[in-house]
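Example A, followed by Example B.
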Amino acid sequence: MTLREPRLTPTPIRDLRPTQITVGLREVHEKRRRWREESASQGAEFLGRHMVPVVLGPKGRPYVLDHHHLVRALHEEGVEDVLTTVVADFRHLSRESFWVCADMRGFCHPYDAAGRRQDFDAIPKSIAKLVDDPYRSLAGELRRAGGFAKDTTPFSEFQWAEHMRSRIKLKALDEDFEAALKRALALAKRQEASYLPGWCGPLPPA
């Protein structure tokens, strides 16, 4: 059996369409910091390691399936192009059928910053128009702190964000992010979080 290497295509960030409404801007800022640290010496290598998966939609437009935070960070840092790889081609579908199909495949996440599902029309048409959801930033930091494992489930961090949204007040998150993260780490180990992707709850007694 012959394995095919992914075909990478340089694509202008301005042409990329999101498949979600929000990002965690705290996470975007962290990725901007990392890019500034690495771009001078290994910018091309960094971009080569982070190919962006897309699905082609009506009129051949590329819709981002992952790395929304990274693409937003690169856009804010003035990077014009990223490498993309096509994982599905839905160019033959109507706009309505495209979004229904994307939804059924787990390719989109039409939920707003309050965790409420919206019509597909609410999904921005550009990476620059993605809005902030602080709980998505919390979920990203929670994973990096070992609160849960990286998982292939689509939009798994958003599931953790929604779990924390009903347990940690936004005011607490705004006033002391580190304290909120500590609280989230404790919540992540509870059995009530075991339904979430990547859960790695308390270790059994020795």
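Example B, a separate protein, is given below in the same form.
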Amino acid sequence: MTDGVRGAPVMWLTSMAVFLNHWFTGYAEARRLLEQEGGYLLPFRHQFVVVTADAVRVLGMDPSDPDWSRIGYDWARPADAAAWARLRLQREIAA
């Protein structure tokens, strides 16, 4: 399943709503929270959400995978394209 925006896998499931998630309409605000408090920055359509490790597990992904660190915990603007590609494959398999 893809999000239709970039053909990337969907990074939000309704079952993730039970966790504390911070929603933003703009990337800059989401990035600022990520830098201040940590978490995982994910896109949702044209919005952004910073989630916990538990929410990443709901996606069928390993939040302790070193590739998260390599991408800067930022799915929307990853620092390392190869690490993002490996995480994307992990998500696609889980979907």
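On Example B: The chain has one domain: 14-83.
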